[in-house]
Amino acid sequence: MAVRDKAGRPVVVVTGMGVVTSLGAGKTENWSKLVAGRSGIRAITRFPTDGLKTRIAGTVDFVAAEPFSAPELSERLAELAADEAVVQAGIGAPGQFPGPLFVAVPPVEIEWPQRLELAAAAGANGAATYDDMLRAAATGRFRAHHARFQFASVADNLAARFGTRGLPISLSTACASGASAIQLGVEAIRRGEVDAALCVASDGSVNTESLVRFSLLSALTTANDPPEEAAKPFSKNRDGFVMAEGAGALVLESYEHAKARGATILGVVEGCGELADSFHRTRTSPDGKPIIGCMRQAIADAGLAVEDIDYINAHGTSTPENDKMECLGVTAVLGERAAQVPISSNKSMVGHTLSAAGAVEAVFTLLTLAHQRIPPTINHQIPDPAIPLDVVPNVARDAKVTHALSNSFGFGGQNVTLVMGLEPA
Amino acid sequence: MADASREAWITGVGLVSCLGEGAETHWQKHDAAAPIHDDTTFAPYVVHPLALPSFDGQIPKKGDQRQMEQWQRTGTYAAGLALDSAGLKGQADILGRMDMIVAAGGGERDYAVDSAIVSGLATAENPGAYLNERLTSDLRPTLFLAQLSNLLAGNISIVHGVTGSSRTFMGEEGSGIEAVRIAHARIAAGQSDVALVGGSQNGERKDLLMLFAFGGYALQAPFHPVWDRGTPGGFATASLGAFLVIEARDHAQARGARPLARLTTVVSDRTARQPGSVTASLDRLWGTLPAGDDSRTAVLSGATGVAPATAEERDVIAARGLPVRATGSLVGHSIEPQFVYNIALAALALGHGRLFAPCDPTGFEQPHDGPLDRVVVTGVGHWRGEGLALVEAVR
Description:
With 425 residues, chain A is of the alpha/beta class. Chain A contains 13 helices and 15 strands. Chain B is of the alpha/beta class.
């Protein structure tokens, strides 16, 4: 493989990967469960679910985060994934990563335990106002909350831990965030600005208010029982996504840099596509043009033809809207081959890891390429006749996969598609 | 720059703040050096309140306005002003491939709902069930979208049709620095031809003040300009929206667009703040800027007024002997979009060929009538993030 692509840009390869989901920590555990069709979705035990329509999630309960908050857990998950990726890459020295950090994290705000703490500190028994809370905040007793609830805090702590270079970028493109983090790393390497980048995406935000917010938008499934059957992308009876937690991390390098230091090449990020949708805050343009354009741009950016794509890692949220529109988009892009090219949704097993999804699924796509085996879309019991795609129903399958797409779509009209492949033999 | 055709030109600015709206108004108000602040509404905290524009002017559909909270309306409005200023409003073909980077925090909370829940939780028999019930019944479904960080960009796509790409950077002051740095780098490298970059803030919020009051960073009355705030100092939150259209020179020339200024260099840094680390960082960053004629150079500082960062920045600038203005004294500190605001002001100053009047009882800011070709914009976050931009006149 040449060190530059057809457009004359440095080829970007992956030399380290890390992942954490509700299925477990690390690539080995996640991959074995994914191809076995196991679900990580379970009843929520983190907080009381009395009266809630949705009482299940793909929480990561095996990672301690104290004092508990979404940024605290997001940071722990990001550390785990990034540690795995950096160790595998064997790049730099411990605590000295030779490149920048791009981190997708959920938006941050103080949470109910902190509000209650402030109200109590203000001595406002039974009638606390923001003025009371603000007065308590100014006492200096809660200084730690400042750092913890800054939007920059997770990235700043990761930058310190891994010794990445420069000012880290924290970003949010809603449910496309993880793919955007990778895209920023790819662009920086292609500019020749850096030889390596650490791209991380994390989400540990399953809490009462986040769940209620998505629930109020009618985005979540209410099929609580049994939890492991709730996420059913592309099925006729799909009725919403399952919130989930996790993190994914990639060490990206220029091929030239990776080869020079004798690194093992795990895969190639061949192309990125992006196109925003101006139709609606939460819905896709009915003609699918933005997602179609996004996928086409990604394929063109990779210097490939549509015929070269032989697997799609779907966004596949299991909402009626997403899966319908993704099918429309894929059908338009693949044309006659639409029904032949396998497309599967990891979210059927790990749920929707939100800000982390794009990176978690990029890791899974790269594992799919490495193992030449496609994880299934589980819970596919009632096919949707309006979705005549090969969704790799219920059972993993060996397949020749050379170039794969990974789609990520999000609220706010966010669309990102990545194209990944293997180092040519 | 190796390839002059890939110079990044600033071809549009959109500003709305306590000083009013539009480029010329901001120039005049900065030149008048009369800070506008409100010391009573959020007493003891000082804020710089938005001079409410007629949002209809840039957000024609009331339905769109209703879907947004104030920070989103402010940002969407300023983005529209920037597109107007660049002559790109409604140019669907260009907007369809225009890249967008927004620097954003989050949106405002519903105070009434939060207060009622916090109060009720204290006495609830089953707090968990109570919280579930109240959130489910009291949260407005649309509030989520009005708070989400990336939904300012989403609203700009909807209202103005900017859809080439849409990225939202978070992380306080550093997010604005990185938004400009990445837009500039992409244009220079040929990855992008034209970009809309900016952000907004609603600084008139108790929940926002709380976040900074935790660390003692929110300025309490009496108000002083930023160089005169001593220790521990603090910043007065600003409500403002600031956007730039940044464009490759060849792209701008091809459509006959006039440059307001050239964005020559953007550099950034992260230091774990210790005494002296801001000094060292700014000195190092300054060393990476291309050399130029110091007699035609000024500094627009994003100093927050927080000690010791502001004192360290002051000493770095003083050592260089350059004339300086801190915009925060007039317009306040908007956190994420402040660096963008200051780059916009730099472009305006270069357009006028001079610096606006000082606003500083300490005398650090001195009257300066000399000609102006270069402006160094500083961004030193109240807690993290350091950056510099060099903005130059296109002659």
